[in-house]
Design a protein that fits this description.
InterPro entries: DUF6933, MM3350-like_sf, Plasmid_pRiA4b_Orf3-like
CATH architecture of the largest domain: 2-Layer Sandwich
Protein name: Plasmid pRiA4b ORF-3 family protein
Number of domains: 2
CATH topology of the largest domain: Nucleotidyltransferase, domain 5
Number of helices: 11
Domain DUF6933: 2-158
Structural class: alpha+beta
Order of helices and strands: EHEEEHHHEHHEEHEEHEEEEEEHHH
Pfam families: DUF6933, PRiA4_ORF3
Domain Plasmid pRiA4b Orf3-like: 176-368
CATH class of the largest domain: Alpha Beta
Radius of gyration: 24 Å
Helix content: 25-40%
Shape: elongated
Number of strands: 15
Length: 375
């Protein structure tokens, strides 16, 4: 594996670059060290496909063990992509011994610098508990970039194609859950059946649900996780209420500001870094927009042991999602009454407003496109 370093990184590593080294582009990386949140951060960018991999919070002892950390972050990032285990090992083994050289290609240096800027811009995605950053690596590698010839590429898709060529077969495999998600409405049926990798984070699951239902992510959200014990929450308006009378064991929230409103009844915890697999097969409720109070009930229907994709999909669904800021269940019913009556004096204005808020017919193909974009 050829690591082509900036002068700054070579000085930090205290290694002497090898001259005239040639390596297959798939196993060659342009690499820089930057400072993010006052911590040393290394960004590796693949020469062939521009896939980016990130190490964060490196200390002096980590720089002494840099070879080991490079192999480990590559392994963890491929695992985050749900690449088959045997292919992960094949890629690591085919990469060979790590050799250091100077950066030598102006175009690749420019691409590396752009990836460094993306790491800084999306620093809120960093996992402060680890030097390995597979989730951030995956996220920034999904972003379309220029190919140097006036066109654009998706680094992750390019990397998948390279791995398929190396493997000669489908490269993905993971355990996945089929989940039925129903929006709690009294008179309308709105539901989606999704298949998601069980290792998905709740932060990503939030994005998937938003895409599946066509929400705009304008408002706060939370997940309630339930066990089998019955609860004494009888108030249907309590955010932790469950239609089957279950007791919540934890509430996962998306914003640190929400921690200021700790519920005496159930512990609240930031969702960042927590994965769905931690709580399976518990039932879940997803609340979105605490004003309109949209409650989504999640139930796992099936576990698939060999799911051959690395992203969630919507299998089927029914019903249109209410417009954002329609005024909750009551407001939605009034909205439906008006748009069902072309003679109503507010019909035209309400139709225009609904469209501006994204109200539209459920379309499975469009939903899956949205899920892939958001994931």
């Amino acid at each position: 594996m050829l690591i082509q370093c900036t002068k700054k990184l070579l000085n930090q590593l205290k290694v002497k670059p090898e001259p005239g080294i040639e390596e297959e582009a798939l196993f060659s990386w342009h690499t820089n060290i930057i400072t993010v949140n006052r911590r040393k951060t290394v960004v590796l960018v693949n020469d062939k496909n521009r896939y980016s991999i990130v190490l964060y919070g490196l200390k002096a002892k980590d720089l002494k063990e840099f070879d080991q950390h490079i192999r480990e972050v590559v392994r963890r990032t491929l695992e985050e992509e749900y690449i088959k285990d045997d292919l992960v090992e094949k890629f690591i083994n085919n990469s060979g011994d790590i050799v250091y050289a100077k950066t030598r290609n102006r175009s690749l240096v420019s691409r590396m610098n752009e990836s460094c800027r993306l790491v800084e811009f999306y620093s809120e995605l960093l996992d402060e508990s680890s030097i390995y950053q597979p989730a951030l690596s995956k996220s920034i590698s999904q972003m379309m970039v220029g190919d140097g010839e006036g066109g654009y590429i998706d680094p992750n898709e390019e990397f998948y194609q390279d791995l398929e060529a190396l493997s000669g077969e489908n490269i993905f495999s993971c355990q996945a859950a089929v989940i039925m998600i129903s929006l709690a409405l009294e008179k309308e049926k709105v539901w989606r059946r999704l298949v998601v990798p069980v290792n998905i984070s709740f932060a990503k699951l939030h994005q998937v649900i938003q895409a599946a239902f066509g929400w705009k992510d304008y408002h706060l959200h939370e997940f309630y996780i339930y066990g089998e014990e019955k609860t004494d929450i009888s108030n249907i308006n309590h955010s932790g209420y469950h239609k089957d009378g279950l007791r919540p064991i934890i509430c996962l929230i998306g914003s640190e500001e929400d921690l200021e409103y700790q519920d005496d009844y159930v512990k609240m915890k930031l969702e960042k870094g927590i994965r769905l697999s931690k709580y399976l097969p518990a039932r879940i409720k997803y609340n979105y927009d605490f004003g309109d109070n949209w409650q989504h009930y999640l139930e796992v229907e099936e576990i698939i042991d060999d799911y051959s994709y690395n992203y969630p999909q919507c299998l089927t669904g029914e019903g249109n999602t209410p417009p954002e800021d329609v005024g909750g269940k009551y407001g939605y019913q009034k909205f439906l009454e008006i748009i069902a009556d072309p003679d109503h004096p507010d019909y035209d204005s309400m139709m225009d407003w609904g469209q501006s808020q994204g109200y539209k017919e459920f379309d499975l193909e469009e939903v899956n496109k949205a899920i892939k974009r958001r994931y």
